[in-house]
Amino acid sequence: MWERDYVAEVGIDNAALLATRGRTAWLASEYRPRDLGDGRVCLSELALGASRELGEEEDGALALGTSG
Question: Which of 9, 21, 25, 35 is deepest in the core (most CB within 10 A)?
Answer without folding.
Answer: 35
